Amino acid sequence: MADGELRLPLEEVHRVVRAAVGRLGLTGERGDLCARLFVEATRDGVYSHGVERLPRFARTVAAGLVDVSATPERTAGSGAVERWDGRRGPGNLNAWAAMDRAVALARTHGVGAVALGNTNHWMRGGTYGRQAAEAGLLAMCWSNTIANTSAAGEEPVVGNNPLVVAVPRPAGPLVLDMALSQFSVGVLTGYAQRGERLPVPGGFTAEGDLTHDAAAVLDSGRPAAVGRWKGFALAVVLDAWAAMLSGGAATHELGTDPEGESGQTQFFLALDPGVVSGPDEQERVADAVVASLHAAGADLRYPGEGTERARRENLERGLPVRRATWAEVSTLAGASA
Q: What pLDDT is stored for residue 337 in this prediction?
């Protein structure tokens, strides 16, 4: 265990987080789901967007950026494609509802697409890919962000627009959950807090030089796009796609303050492979892809395999939470750490 870190039983973490979101005004089933999504992100090893993120979420509620009483509303659509207004509600609840609707549309039409505007940070994006995959569907979803990613050291003009792609598999879904920056802001923050060197250059200094120093990247505000110009271009088209379909804000309309980020745009796609193949074929294909990776090298793993490992370890040892964060969350819950 790292210095300054606690290991806590999942049940205790969930109890305190549930109390905290309840005091923010999220009650009943909405409060239950909101708390579960925060806790499960930490359980699965996505610490920057789990319990660690809850104090920042509370600040956005206090600042009026998130309306805890708001629920998403359908504003347009035809057939398998719909537009929804998130009404500045809690981002994780809005995203869950949007993917749930995409899954329902896919059950009817074979494919379902929901474009969601005027929403907030969805926390762990991979949650919604898993949501569809665990229902037996293929899925893609992404969110735009404020401008925070640089191709060649320039002032950022695109977001790191996280992209999720999921494939159902009974033994464990394949879930790609990636920011379009080489490292997400949460991961950079973790490296900076630990004083560790990034394994590959993660961004640029204020002078425009590539660096392994996470703190320098955060100070400059210029994380590198994954694949440099390729990641930059992908961020641009995902942003335009989601904004066009949702009627929501594109990155250039979102402002620049990370603490004030609100009004984001997201897109959710679910596809039922059962319209063209049976469950046995689907399982055989997914298992064969995984087996081929494992056979090629002991260090190769499928997208999402690390999540399965982190989940097992954290359930056995307890969920890791920084002491400082736990004190904040406990205060939000009206309890002492």
A: 54
Question: Among all residues, which ones are annotated catalytic?
Answer: 49
- Any idea which residue has 């347009």 for tokens? 76
Domains of the chain (ranges; CATH) run: 1-62+304-337 (1.10.1530.10), 71-181+225-303 (3.30.1370.60)
The DSSP secondary structure of 286-302, one letter per residue, reads HHHHHHHHHHH-TT---
If one counts every other C-beta atom within 10 angstroms of the C-beta of residue 241, the result is 15
pTM of the predicted protein model? 0.95
Three-class secondary structure of residue 268 per DSSP: strand
Is the pLDDT at 4 greater than 90? The verdict is no
- Residue 113, beta-bridge partner list: 81, 269
Average pLDDT over residues 254-260: 86
Amino acid of residue 264: Q
pLDDT at 1: 37
Helices (H), the chain: 10-23, 28-43, 54-62, 91-109, 126-133, 185-194, 214-220, 229-246, 279-296, 305-317, 323-333
Alpha-carbon span 148 to 327, nearest angstrom? 29
**Mean pLDDT over residues 89-101, rounded?**
98
Read off the pLDDT of residues 126-152 as tens digits, 9 standing for 90 and up: 999 999 999 999 999 999 999 999 999
